[in-house]
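[09:14] KT: can someone run the structure on this one? pasting the chain below
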Amino acid sequence: MPTTASSPTASGVGGTPIADVTASDSTLRRFLHGLPGVDAVGLEGRAASLGTRSIKTTAKAYAIDLAISMIDLTTLEGADTPGKVRALAAKAVNPDPTDRSTPTTAAVCVYPDMVATAKEALKGSEVKVASVATAFPAGRAALGVKLADVRDAVAAGADEIDMVIDRGAFLAGDYMKVYEEIRAVKEASGSARLKVIFETGELSTYDNIRRASWLGMIAGADFIKTSTGKVAVNATPANTLLMLQAVRDFREQTGVQVGVKPAGGIRTSKDAIKFLVLVNETAGEDWLDNHWFRFGASSLLNDLLMQRQKLATGRYSGPDYVTVD
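[09:31] RB: done, structure tokens below
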């Protein structure tokens, strides 16, 4: 069985102990720039090809329930209120009040100041509380401020922390700064699982996304995540495929399994099923579980519920069938 990312220093990468890969900025740079270059045409073609796969009705029903169970139901707005968070938590626990067989979502994702409210609202359920942190979404703050953000969220009861990397440092080639920051956040997170957000839309190239993926995993990420959902380009089939390849290869080399979370722009059941096909065909069945794959979404759940009801009854319900988030 693969180990989790909580002890990444115990394993090697490409035959080299991780401690040696991260011994200095130069060794880390040498490793990251030694990764194979990404064939953009091939990657996008593969993602497009997998997106055309059709599945049977029975498989679709299973996929819809699986997708529901993988959602981090999210509200990250300046106008968030305790009432809105409690309503979202109620929806996460009981997405369809007319059908108690509907799975719960994986988590509710909120800002740190709303963690205590979400935790109380979710008491007694299996739904996790995830909190964005580290000066989300831009990440433009001193490390001490970022760590205080994380500690506040954990103290309030967060089960998971979604951090953003310093994209400026990464794009400037200061990989060691990014590595050390992830390690510090990992330590501050304690037992909470750590999702590391790259903001792939700002990384410019597929090669950078591959490097960021490996850097995050080497630093101890429990999940690697595409995006904040706050920029123009968020999760795409191609960048998610690339990250799935990275976690697959990382486990092959180290025995450590890391999750993947595409976030932003995934709004329909059709989209979600395409991503599940990517997971199955690239990383494999071991990742077809909400412990290892998540959707960062808010509006996706409503469409999944509508499609689920259509499969069950043969018709769509009216526009008031699902709640408006």
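[09:33] KT: thanks! Residues 179 and 234 are 23 Å apart (CA to CA).
[09:34] RB: yep, looked fine to me
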